[in-house]
Write a structure and sequence with these properties.
Layout lengths: L4 E7 L10 E7 L10 E7 L9 E4 L8
Parallel strand pairs: 2-4
Antiparallel strand pairs: 1-2, 1-3
């Protein structure tokens, strides 16, 4: 498994499909970040200018139902 890092990402507007809609700070492994809901693109990695309460934990990606 790869290292867990903070990603600053853009999301897609779920209603219009427009990219670059909102910025999220997501703690994740690189192989899971693209599975984040409405993911658009990574802006930066290892970003440090965030407020801890705004970070979303996505370390293991989406939960899988069995």
């Amino acid at each position: 498994m790869s290292e867990v890092i903070l990603h600053e990402i853009y999301t897609i507007n779920p209603e219009t499909g427009e990219g670059g809609w909102d910025i999220k700070y997501v703690l994740s492994r690189p192989e899971h970040i693209k599975s984040f809901p409405n993911f658009d693109v990574v802006i930066s990695r290892g970003y440090h200018g965030f407020s801890p309460e705004t970070v979303i934990n996505w370390i293991f990606g989406p939960k899988v139902s069995i």
